[in-house]
Structure formats: structure tokens, C-alpha cells
Amino acid sequence: MTPNERTVVAGDRPTRVLECGNGRPLVWLHDTLGNRWSEGHSLVAEFARVLTPSLPGFDDSATLDGIDAAEDVVLWLLDFLVAENLRPVLLGCGLGGWMAAELAVRYPERLSGLVLVDAYGLRVEGALAADEFALTATMLRPLVFADPLGNAAQANLPDVEPTERFEQTLHARVAAARLAWQFPYDRKLRARLRRARVPALVVWGECDRLVSTEHARAYADALPHARLELIAQAAHHPYIEQPRAFADVVHGFVAELGEA
What is the pLDDT of residues 130-167, one digit of tens each? Predict the structure, then answer.
């Protein structure tokens, strides 16, 4: 499936949105790779209306103004939901998963469900997330892909970005570093997760060596209405490495929610 692209003004921030599919709205917050459409997105769009807004700064550094912490992203995301009149399933991957969790503990009434995918956000003693900003692509690939030599790894995390994607990748790295350079977690988040009283699904690649499955279990234990699903032969990006298995798990969760 090929998504439509449009711009939504969220608060005062022009926000690029990719959209595809019909059914229950599902807002998908991307990870540090940026707002890229994948086979996993298309498979989820077979049963849901998928909207993927670019996090502030990921497409244009000018939209980073005033964004210094997770709380700033939460307020931008709230503006986006209001602008689109949505009470969606909120799905977040990696950095986007952290932002999704932060919104869920503050405004659970704005969501019909929560899906966290290999999410940053928690400090887990003995299993701290690796510092991806200190690693080259060659060093990072074995941590975030189950098959670091496979096509998916080489296409999404090459040693040298193709010219047409270089500027977007640069914006993405700067924006991600603004939020997670020092600590990719919120020390208070785990205790606050009890406030996220919405149906929740925690999905993790069981081979993730960037944010280990200990983080998945910590999220699943702390959320009041969550279940955990591990995706075999996938690491930090299960929607890229195992798109069908990933979509099937999300489909089961969305189906349990009933009609939108």
C-alpha cells in the first residue's frame, strides 16, 4: 500500500503525516529511523486507518523550537489528536514508544488503546539501554537487527546514507538526540504507568540488544491492562524484520477492542 501524505497543523507546528487504510484509527509514532513507511505499516493498514505523524524536528529542524523534553512532545501530540479529532490506538516504536507511554499516563482518556514496540523510557537496573548515539551504523546493526547482514538491516541502517535520504536522516539524528542524548528514559515513568488505564499491548523483538526484553517485561508488569508478545527472529524493529508476525499480533489486539 502507498500512503497519502499531507500536512496537519498541530498547535502551531506543521506536521507531516502519512496516512493509509480504513477502520479504527491507529496513530503510529516512529522511532529514531524517522517517519518511513514500511511493509509492516502497509499490513497494519489492511485492518486500521494508520496515521504516522513525524515527531517534531524529524523532517525539519525548525519544528524543534521549544522541544526540549518528553513533556513538550506530549503536548504536541495532544494538539495533533485534537486537530484530527482522534481517540486512537496509539502505537509507538523505540523513541516513539517512550513518547506514547508519556502521553498515556497523562491523558489516558484520549486513547482507545496503547501499543508499545521496543520502547525506550524506563530505567531497568542491570539492563540499561545501549547508547545508540555513541555507535556507528556498523556497530549498531547487530544490536537492532536479528540479521545484521540481511537486506532489511543494510537498507535501513547503511554505512552511508543514500543522497536522497541524507538530509532527513540528519534531521532525525538531531531531533532524537535532543530528547534522548543524555538519558533515554524518565526515572518517574515506571511509577506513573499505573495511570495508563487503557488496554495495552507490549510488543518486542526477542533479539533486541539495544533495549532488551527486560524492558518489555518491566512495561508489561507496570501497565495495569497489558499483555506481552515477543516476536521471534526480530530485534529492535520487528515491524521491519518480521512484518507479518508483527501485524498479526497488532491485529489481534485491535480486534479485541471491537468497533471504533
Answer: 777 778 888 999 999 999 999 999 888 887 766 666 66
Q: What is the pTM of this model?
A: 0.94
Residue 204 grid cell: 518486542
**Per-domain residue ranges of the chain:** 4-257
Instruction: Report the distance separating Cα 124 and Cα 187, nearest Å.
Output: 10
The CA-CA-CA angle for residues 18, 87, 183, to 5°, reads 70
Residues 193, 196, 198, 201: is their CA dihedral positive or negative?
negative
Residues 6+ apart with CB under 8 A from 124: 212, 214, 215, 218
Assess contact for 153 and 210: CB atoms under 8 A.
no
- Distance separating alpha carbons of residues 117 and 124, to the nearest angstrom: 16
The answer as to CATH 3.40.50.150 being correct for domain 4-257 is no
